[in-house]
Batch of 2 targets.
Target 1
Amino acid sequence: MITKNEMIKVLQTALSGGGDFAELFFENKDELNIKCSQQVLKGITTVHIFGAGIYLLSGTQSIYVYTNNLSFSGLMDAAQKASELLHTDKQPVHNQIVFSMQTVKNPNTVIQYPRTIPHQEKVRVIRETDAAARSAGHSIRQLNVDYFDTDQRILVVNSEGLYAEDRRVTSRLRLQATVEDGTNSHYEWGDFPRPYGFEAFRVKDDYISFAKEFINDIADNMNAVSAPSCVVPVVFEAGSCGTLWHEACGHPLESGAIATNNSDFVGKLGQKVASSKVTVIDDGSIPGLYGTAGIDDEGHPTQKNVLIENGILKGYLCDRLGGRKLNMPSTGSGRRQGYMFAPAARMTNTYLAAGTDDDDEMISSIDEGLFVKRIGGGNSGREFSVSVAEGYWIKDGKLAHRVKGLTLNARGIDLIKRVDRVGKNIETEGGGFCGSVSGLVTTTSFQPRMRVSSMTVGGEGEK
Amino acid sequence: MMFLDNYRRAMKKLPEGIAEAEINVERKECIKIGVSGGRVALTDVSDVTSIYVRASGEKTGYAYTEDLGEDAQEVLLRAYNNGLISDSEQIDILNTPKTAFNPNTLNDNIQSRNKENQHPVNSSAVVEKAMLLEDLVRKSDSSIKTVLATVRSDTLSSTVLNSKGVDISFKRNVYYAKVNVTAQVMGDSIDAVYSISNSSLEELDLGFLVEKINNSIKNKIEPGSLTSGEYPVVLDQSVGINIMMTAWQLFSGMKYCDGSTALKGRLGEYIGSSAFSIVDMPFHKYTGYYFPFDCEGTPGKEVMLVDKGKFTSLMHNNYSSSQLDLQPTGNAGRVALLTGNIPTDIIVTPKICCIKPGVNSTQQLLQEMGDGVYITESYDIFHSINIGSGDFAIPCRGVFIKDGKPSHSVNALSICGNLIDLFNNVIETSNDFIIDEFLLKSYCVGSPSIRLSKLQING
């Protein structure tokens, strides 16, 4: 690693073409994965990611140069290149850069760093998970159990004198299985992600139960029937159905979408954009969640950001550049997968705040509708979509049967006006990855049970 | 690249315990320029080298590093030690100079293209092209209010070097242009995005890109509703590509062997209509991507996966081909779908996997359909198709076609069914055909427009 004085020289070189802000982002990351396919341990792969990015701003123009040549000369070359690529008439400003160490504790405390754990212990977790999945009582045609851990150390220094570090550790199991019943087969994958070290696997029941439920769910899904096509009330269960908020209004509230006029929320700050029951928050500082970090990837401490409060639009998610474009401060939302990406405003832990409505009444008051227990993933834009991983048809106020093959889509700003119930009991979720302009970042999205008064549901079945 | 010489030396004198070893080096040098409002808004420049290592004694182990200064012998040893815990009885099969790609087999066209690729990319030419594209799009339609035109130049170099004497490299340039626009039409905001690629900056067809963007806007004006049901359908090229970005897995030799695809056991059977064929190839004139060899060094072969409806072949790497006692097809790759981690496992991935085009244009397909729905865009590659069952439910939008002509647009749709039924319902494919890159620039898929006798659409 280059010295602090050398970092200052790199930043000054980057600024020599007239930029008004320069940042160096260093990433040193170790990943380990162990693959087990069809009960055969395929071995271990170690991954060492090691690189840096130079981020240069001049007003709202950005330059990002990244490399894995981390020698002083390599970084000076990159800084020189960044400086030359800046198309500006501004004269360079020769400010003295003095680093000031910023100390922010990562809310996710790690007890057992992955590299301190013998491989045999990790293999034991894989074997136990595999055995649990196979004991679920269904015919498994194919089963892969993969173990991953990551240990990312980042350092952000910039021309304003910031010097900030963070360390993010995660552990994860990924199951992929094909279950068959003689005539049909169904494939699914599922993750058991934790923002911790190996202590994530301290309670055996957690991952054992996950594995059994994963297989049971695939088998149940094979007995599901197609939903009819109609417009009905839809109830979304507490927990991971919060993905709907991530897709319907989280992405459109990121400064990247707002600054390019690519969102229905442009120009609506202070206006009513959703049902009064809707309060949406993004908070990267909540301990124990997958989207949590001490600082964002621009060195700004993570914070709680209220986006919509009682239906009124309160704010956008801003990174440094997005903030400049919108004339707003950073909200600690500048995130990236790693040094190969410039930062962009991204969500962290996004949730619908708890309301006052009764969970049971949301279903019992419906003659015919859909109950979504789990969402598998989704897609965003002015129109968003989410795939229903586990859904049930509601008939006369009760869950009648499981439905399959459903994707729900709507215009986000229209749908959030039709929320007519929000329950009292909020539940978090394990989390996952969100893929967007600055790569894959860890996120969670969750909610209490919630109901949309009417939504188009489309399947191949008869009503 | 000094580090390569270190690995070359290490291959000749492997550390104790290691019987054979291989490295695959992937270097990506990129320049990306984004222009908006007539000025350069963003510039990304990068030069990153990734080293994938495998080493075998009695077992095979793997390692990955981006630290070019690491001692080659130490990295090989780390890979070897990682393999010791494996309970696999087999070690990986490495290519020899006889079975690996031979650079002398490149045809003249590729040879000359390869020589051109040795020249450094001119960044000011990339800026110029992005400025031109932004200007063309902005002036093409007065309803367009915001434009971001991005032009990217990638120089991608691949090297496979192993202890059996294989030492091959290939470099190619890929140019890529993408436009994101927002238009204001009758009080409504409409977004459109489109992209193209080519092996030459000059040959990027900006006119085609502008036309596609303008059509995309037109197809979204004043959307109406649709009554759910089965309709005759034409799927646009981009929808075919969206499907293929996941559906190629049906033809993975590895997935076929482990039984995780809906086509398990059906090799040799008819799985589609006679108008439906799929081919995987190392080169296509419509894209700058070229895959002369895979990450194991195996030459990339053209493979007919579905021939007039008959499921004829699979894509293979060294492992999957050995399981079925077949030859590898140059389809060893690492990036399947999103994983959240650096993809290091050698799996099967496509090269340029395409649905074969037909003889008539998309316009002719629409006219022949008469009344039906033209599905113009679809979304969500990752969650909408189940490869194990073939079931799909894909969010999309489209245009009602009446007497072969556009009637009105419809949004918030989903198309659903099973891929095998969809393949069987293909009446005709168009002659206008596009290819797009996929994950981490590691492979491409292509599709013409596809006319189907029927498809369930929900609105």
Target 2
Amino acid sequence: MEQPIIQADKLTKRFGDFVATDAITFDVARGEIFGFLGANGAGKTTAMRMLCGLSTPSSGRAHVAGFDVATHPEDVKQNIGYMSQKFSLYENLTVAENITFFGGIYGLRNPVLRDKREQLLARLELEHAADKRVGSLPLGWKQKLAFSVAILHDPKIVFLDEPTGGVDPFTRRQFWNLLYSAAGQGITVFVTTHYMDEAEYCHRVSIMVDGRMAALDTPRRLKETYGAASMDDVFYTLARGAQRGE
Amino acid sequence: MSFIPWRAVRNGVNNTNTVTDMQQLALFIRKEFIHVLRDRRTLLILFGMPVMQILIFGFALSNEVKNARLVVVDHGRDLATAALIARLDASRYFEVEQVALSPPALEATFRRGEVKVAVVFPARFYEQWQHGRDVAVQVIADASDPNTATTLTQYVSAIVYDHATEQREAQALPYGLRVETRMLYNPQLEGAPNYVPGVMALVLMLVCVMMTAVSIVREKETGTLEVLLVSPFRPVLVIVAKAVPYLILSLVNVGTILVLSTTVLHVPVQGNVLLLLAESILFITTCLALGIFISVQTSSQQVAMLISLMGMLLPTILFSGFMFPIENMPVPLQVIAHAVPAKWYYIIVKAIMIKGLGIAAVWKETLVLAGMTAGWLFISVKRFNIRLA
């Protein structure tokens, strides 16, 4: 069996007495779209920061793309992509300049970078907008562009922190088509979201409550287990018991 | 929709085509320049401000009083008073106007604010003088504005005194005491030599601290900083990449100020220009470190801007010594002034630029400034890294 691309084993982060992430254990397979759900303050962000090599675990271990996040954060960083909820491109740089910049930051350079830039523009049908400032694009396009930039360097995993905030369901659907294509190419997608329709699109979903992982399964089985009609109901049933607020 | 074969070129990515730190840094610095050059407001602050400040401080804000209205009440009406009045009138400081006013009427003109200074000659002025008696010229000034009053009365006294001395010598009187005053470095007591170093400290402080802080905090707001930190790009290089463009732009500002100062205000650099530039780079580095420090502590551009303005601009104006002499401050305030980097830079610039002194004269101040720079850099970089953990 293929080695999981993400392995977390009792991964814990404490800030003083506060346990932000409490001994979470899970695996994510290569090419999987893994939904990481939880109310605000449930410990999602802290867990994701540890997996990205930004924050050192207080105890427990995690391997991402085969590297220990505590001891080899630089190797982890080299192998992942990241897109934040603020879609994270430079608004006063053009589309092409953004691609060049972020590609360069990840170590790409010409002629590879040039090829990839042209492929990306062609795929998003943005050739005509290559020299337009990103700030002038509609939000949906910015998000698609940001995602494509996040996987420009062929990461093994891409982490998405609430990537579709503020866009309409139709554009969200288009965005998810991008995620499916990426997953089809073998890129693992690790995504946090507040939208339960998006949770339904994930291969598997985990739900965090008060720093612990309260549930982890496919959306279909989660609904069966909790006797719920939708992921919304599953989430509500679990999150209702939460002690921590925002 | 066909998907790009992302992996097709994989082998070329991390091996032969790996970009070095220096290349990444160059890429980042280029991006920073694009940010600055595309933002009109930033450009305006960056290059408009030094020009504005130099012109405002050089011309509009000045302690010098020129062509003040001087009222003369001449009860003597003789040769001596005429000669003195002519002399007062000849100076570029005064527009003399002779009136015959009673003391109460004169006071009324003062109350109405029509006049700032008046000179009253007593009756039989020449006669008394010729007989070797003490004779007094009364100078009355509106001291509700103490600075102007002091300046004006000093001008009048100087003119009267000069005149008296000349007369005495002309008549070959055996006695007489002469005070010879020399105002070093700034014989005309002009404002500009004082203001130019102050404006340099002020502009650099503003540009470096505010621009650096805002540009880093902006990346926090847009989420791009997160992406940079998740990337393999080294965090310390983020700091360097932010600092380098503003260091260069600030040096351009120093150049602008020096050119304006020389050509428009006629205050050239008396000392070594290279030394002045080196000291400026040191001061700019302090400011950049402060900017980074502020950016770490704040998360919105507005807050960063406010803190930069209140926290940097005010102390610079109050405690650098270019507006208010530090020697006259109460001890606690003097202690605070010592902690203000601009104070040391101001002393250094004045010494090099106005007095034409070399490093031998300012090595102590340079050391203090270098210590502050090192301290703030250390704290800022440390805080920046802590925030990442």
